Structures are given as C-alpha cells and as structure tokens.
Amino acid sequence: RKEFVDLYVNYVFNESIRKPFEDFMRGFLRGCPARKWKMFLPVELQIVLQGHTKFDWHLLEKNVTYIQYKKLDRTIRNFWAVFHKLPEEKKKMFLAFLSGSDRIPGYGLEYFKVSIVDPEAENPDELCPSVNTCSHILFLPR
Description:
Helix content is 49%, strand content 8%. By secondary structure, it is of the alpha/beta class. It folds into two domains: 1-50, no CATH class; 57-139, Hect, E3 ligase catalytic fold, CATH 3.30.2410.10. The protein has a four-stranded mixed sheet, with helices on one face. The chain has helices spanning 2-13, 18-31, 34-37, 42-50, 57-63, 74-85, 88-99; strands at residues 65-67, 115-117, 130-132, 137-139. The mean pLDDT is 87.
C-alpha cells in the first residue's frame, strides 16, 4: 500500500504536470533568463514578480507629494480621513485605480511615490477625480 501511495503521489504532483510545467518553464526562461533569477529566494522572486500584498497605508500617506495643495488643506485632510476609514479591499481598489495594480511594486512602499495634484478647475464640483497611472498622479479637485 505504501508503494502504491508513493507512486500515486509522485504521479499526481510530478509526472502528470511534467509537460505543462516544462512548457511554462521554457517560455518563462525565454523572457527571464535563469542566471538572473537564481539570486532570489522563492519568496523574494514572488515579490519581484507579483509585488507586495501587505500595505502600510500611513506610510503611503507620508510619502505623498502635493502639487498646488498643502498637506493641511481641507481637501487633503478630508481625503485621508475618508481613505483611512475604507475597508482594506476598497483601499486596494483605489491603489489599482491610481497605479493600475492592487499591489505595491517589489521595490517597496517606501519608494512608491504618489502625487496629489489640484487640477485648478474653474468649477471643481463638475470635475471627477482622475489619475495618470504611469506617474501615480491623482488629480483631486477641491
């Protein structure tokens, strides 16, 4: 019985997926040469490829730069008050709106730069918040 179980487990976890895994590995290594990836531990490689999944939202707030705004402007204070009351999933949705991904890049949140800009609209009540995802800029009307 032990031999049967060992052979079955080997088949399920190794033999049955060998061809699809080899195809995946060949494609992966074509775009990402193996020499450069060997320096990472598996957990580190996952972070590099997928980004961070744990967030310090107060650090994000601390690293924001303001253009045509000051940190103590009412609009900014209201924005952060509402943001910090959001559930975690909504905060991730905002991050996806802002950057195109609900994860922080592998280099870390302390280097993830965000700007909040006043678009200086004549009638800010008629303008919705918008973003430049490439530069992580939030255009937030007053």
